[in-house]
Amino acid sequence: MRAAFPSLFVLPSPAALGRWLAMAILASLLSACGYNDFQSKDEAVKAAWGEVVNQYQRRADLIPNLVATVKGYASHERETLEAVTKARAQATSIQVTPETLNDPEAFARFQQAQGQLTSALSRLLAISENYPQLKADAAFRDLQSQLEGTENRITVARQRYIAAVQEYNVLARSFPTNLTAKVFGYPVKPSFTVENEKAISAPPAVKF
């Protein structure tokens, strides 16, 4: 009597086959309508934005020591020193999250605050030209060097963010992927505007 062996291949039930087919069709449709592209470009924008925020925070971290050093040689420049301190406090008080990218008003507040801080820093560095002893101070020169490097990294980070947003927004505005954007909640993202571009993109002049 021959032993009965179980079949090596078990055909799926019609219901299971239907589910697999539906999933395959859905995956194909999502790919065709740009859903996968939205996911990858959205992540690219978030990564670029994170680097922008990190570099601005690094600049903010340098400011207290810079202000303290300048105050040691130019304490009577009180108005300029207070302006920098106030601008830094305003910039760092703004809560920045990935959701900021979906809120044009919050993004504009962040951009404006950073622009004001850039302007205040420019004025602070300008007055250092009037104080030879301050310019010769090793700590001040080191802070200037760090600030210059940070400003350059801010510029690069912003350029990368602008490029990433441009690619994403083209997808969000173009047909038929704009329909996918509406269905799955991928709104057009804000970028740095022309109005404040000059103030924000031009780093404070750092002279030695």
From TrEMBL:
Pfam families membership: LemA (PF04011)
Keyword Nucleus listed: no
Membrane topology: Single-pass membrane protein
Primary location recorded for the protein, binned into one broad class: membrane
UniProt-annotated location(s): Membrane
Keywords, in A-Z order: Membrane, Transmembrane, Transmembrane helix
GO-annotated cellular components: membrane
Family that this chain belongs to: Belongs to the LemA family.
PANTHER family (UniProt xref): MEMBRANE PROTEIN, PROTEIN LEMA
Protein name: LemA family protein
Species this protein is from: Cupriavidus campinensis
